[in-house]
Amino acid sequence: MARTALLSALSLVLLALAAVPALANNGGDVSQLWSTDTYRCTKDQLGWSFMIARSYHSYGGIDPNGRLNTINARAAGIRYTDVYHFPCYGKVSAQQQMEDDVSHTGKENFGMLWFDIETNTSPGCQWSANLADNCRFMGELIRAGQGLSLHMGIYSSEYMWGRIMGDDCHVGADSSLPLWYAHYDHNPSFSDFRSFGGWTRPNVKQYWDSV
């Protein structure tokens, strides 16, 4: 399933600036393997200029389709290809997760890696009931990514971030990671954004849950 998003053109070059309509681009995230023809269709018919492929599963393992999706999207003429990483808390160390993800996906195939912060129901990978522990683990993931010279961002919603990390956890914002937030209001605008997790403005909005 793909979900439509609004992305600031400036955030594509890692400038954390809020988008204005003239600088907005459409794209989406992908969790299944798509062919080059499918990506070409989304580019030509839906106007996609970017895509974000899942590269790491919630159960603590790489997504073998992540690398292929980025390659197919680029072959279709989609200019910007990112990946998203669904963290596993408890079963696999932060360092190992990041090394496995990058080793399989290939740094040359993506611009940014986004951490998908939402409820994880996979056995052995659920977030802790201790929010401070979750926040510390998030910091470990970020530091591991920094050690691999990755450009990173956070995907979450105000509700999910508060429930998992806690309102006082600013580890992503304090590390200057851009924010991709979710609000399925079918409105490709940042006008609804409310500050959370230390972020005062977003870079990407998830505004539709299917295309």
How would you characterize this protein structure?
Keywords: Signal. GO terms for molecular function: lysozyme activity. Residues 1-24 form the signal peptide. This protein is of the alpha/beta class and 211 residues long. The chain has one domain (2-206): TIM Barrel. The protein has 6 helices and 9 strands, in the order ββαββαβαβαβααββ. It has helices at 36-46, 65-75, 94-105, 131-147, 158-164, 171-174, and strands spanning 2-8, 24-30, 48-57, 61-62, 80-85, 113-116, 152-156, 179-182, 204-206. The chain has an 8-stranded mixed β-barrel, surrounded by 5 helices. Strand 5 (80-85), helix 3 and strand 6 (113-116) form a beta-alpha-beta unit. Helix 1 crosses helix 2 (65-75) and helix 3 crosses helix 4 (131-147). The chain is globular, with a radius of gyration of 16 Å. The termini are close together. The model is unreliable at 8-23 (pLDDT under 50).
